[in-house]
């Protein structure tokens, strides 16, 4: 079995993703490595949470192949929404950060939704690379 099809690899990716989120959201000054554009922060939230959601989706798919897409998707979306809410609350205690931004939380949750649409298309590619 390849490292790409091992559930533990994807669960570890979720842990690393979450650790990076904790680090990033604890920074008082955070400069994004992308050019300035309208709603940049919302796009970055959505993208970051979509990546975490993809890792969680794949971890669950490989560890629980009998789970339906709907069941895994529900879990991933609830995970992204919960972690997003906790992160927004936590940021409210970080100097120079606003926190409790409803728009950021919505973008985080939508990132989970995007992950659920993208992940099934990644599965065949990952299985092919695992051989």
How is this structure best described in words?
The structure is a single chain. This protein is mostly helical. It has one domain (3-25, 37-130). It has four helices and no strands. The protein has helices spanning 7-25, 40-63, 69-91, 102-130. α2 (40-63) packs across α3 (69-91) and α2 crosses α4. Residues 42-118 form the VanZ-like domain. Keywords: Membrane, Transmembrane, Transmembrane helix. The chain crosses the membrane at residues 43-60, 67-85, 105-126. It comes from Phragmitibacter flavus.
Summarize the structure.
With 131 residues, the chain is an all-alpha fold.
The computed structural class is: mainly alpha
SSE pattern, N- to C-terminal: HHHH
Helix content: over 70%
Radius of gyration: 15 Å
Amino-to-carboxy terminus distance? 8 Å
Mean pLDDT: 93
Shape by Cα distribution: elongated
Strand segment tally: 0
Organism: Phragmitibacter flavus
Protein name: VanZ-like domain-containing protein
Keywords: Membrane, Transmembrane, Transmembrane helix
Keywords:
131 residues; mainly alpha
Secondary-structure blueprint:
Blueprint: H1 7-25, H2 40-63, H3 69-91, H4 102-130
Helix pairs in contact: 1-2, 2-3, 2-4, 3-4
Pfam family, one: VanZ
Organism: Phragmitibacter flavus
Keywords: Membrane, Transmembrane, Transmembrane helix
């Amino acid at each position: 079995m390849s490292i790409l099809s091992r559930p533990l690899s994807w669960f570890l990716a979720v842990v690393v993703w979450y650790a990076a989120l904790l680090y990033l959201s604890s920074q008082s000054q955070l400069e994004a490595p992308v050019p300035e554009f309208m709603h940049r922060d919302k796009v970055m939230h959505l993208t970051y949470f979509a990546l975490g959601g993809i890792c969680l989706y794949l971890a669950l798919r490989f560890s629980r192949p009998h789970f339906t897409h709907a069941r895994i998707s529900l879990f991933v979306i609830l995970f992204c929404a919960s972690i997003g809410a906790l992160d927004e609350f936590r940021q409210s205690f970080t100097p120079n950060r606003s926190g409790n931004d409803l728009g950021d939380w919505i973008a985080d949750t939508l990132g989970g939704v995007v992950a659920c649409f993208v992940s099934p298309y990644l599965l065949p590619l990952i299985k092919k690379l695992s051989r």
